[in-house]
Design a protein that fits this description.
The chain is globular and about 60 Å long. The chain is α/β, with parallel strands linked by helices. The strands form three sheets. Strands 6-13-11-9-7-8 form a six-stranded mixed sheet. The protein has a five-stranded parallel sheet with strand order 3-2-1-4-5, with helices on both faces. Strands 10-12 form a two-stranded parallel sheet.
């Protein structure tokens, strides 16, 4: 009997890559896509079963996975925080679950979701399952080597990013000259970078190094919300006018690594795992 892996899919390529890798390794992928984030057509030739649900349809999701004999599950892909307002339509179990929450912090809510699934005999696993080779080790990935001043800026940004991630605010910051230009909130990484770019364009001194830094939480739960970068991140740096992207080594998923570095080299952007 084919072993099954359940996937709760948000937006982006990560859930699709996981489903593809799972099938290659002999698993059957059973996928619940979050409405407004995942698209059924992306999984139609990969998933053994697929269902699109709104945020809050906890009971429906549990029944779908149970009906397909799923015992192991993972979350993958970003869910737009605005979906909480636009696509939230809880079923009865979801409504009871939401009423029981003490706050809406990402870590807290997702840990409680994991508890609900565990009650039904479904265990969550590492969200980077099958993607271990997508996490680069320490070093420069681009052709352009960051300057000493840029690396100092990145080191400062690393401290800021770790601080905001510990507070469950976001995983990304944009810094310059020991000053914080922007931190990631509900808008996500790309829009944080673009917002910082607008502020940077108004700056009197545009010759000082700026670093975009992304990290994992100090106590990162690998079952959800891992830091991810991809080609879109590089495109956002280009639009913002920034030349350095730094991320936490061995804890950040880099999707389409060759394409990411090729694009960074085209734009003269330095990419470094620290």
């Amino acid at each position: 009997m084919t072993e099954k892996i359940g996937i709760i899919a948000g937006e982006g390529k990560m859930p699709l890559y996981i489903a593809q890798k799972a099938v290659q390794k002999g698993y059957e992928a059973v996928v619940v896509g979050i409405k407004g984030n995942a698209r059924e057509e992306d999984f139609k030739n990969i998933a053994g079963a697929f269902r699109l649900l709104r945020l809050g349809q906890l009971g429906a999701g549990l029944e779908f996975f149970k009906s397909h004999g799923v015992k192991k599950i993972l979350m993958a892909g970003r869910v737009q925080h605005t979906s909480i307002f636009a696509n939230l339509m809880p079923d009865l179990r979801g409504a009871k679950f939401l009423a029981s929450l003490k706050n809406m912090g990402t870590q807290y809510v997702l840990s409680r979701v994991i508890e609900e699934f565990k009650k039904e005999g479904i265990e969550f696993t590492n969200s980077a399952l099958f993607l271990e080779d997508f996490m680069p080790g320490k070093g420069v990935l681009s052709r352009r080597i960051p300057t000493e001043q840029e690396m100092q800026t990145a080191a400062f940004g690393f401290k800021i990013a770790k601080a905001i991630s510990a507070l469950d605010i976001g995983l990304t910051c944009v810094v310059s000259q020991n000053a914080t230009i922007a931190v990631e909130g509900m808008e996500g990484t790309d829009k944080c970078i673009l917002r910082a770019g607008e502020l940077y364009k108004k700056s009197a001194d545009k010759d000082v190094p700026v670093a975009v830094v992304k990290v994992a939480r100090p106590q990162q739960d690998e079952r959800f919300d891992l830091p991810v970068i991809g080609k879109g991140t590089i495109e956002s740096l280009k639009k913002a006018g920034f030349k350095l992207l730094a991320f936490e080594a061995q804890k950040t998923l880099v999707l389409d690594l060759e394409d990411v570095t090729r694009l960074a080299d085209k734009y003269g952007i330095a990419v470094v795992a620290i």
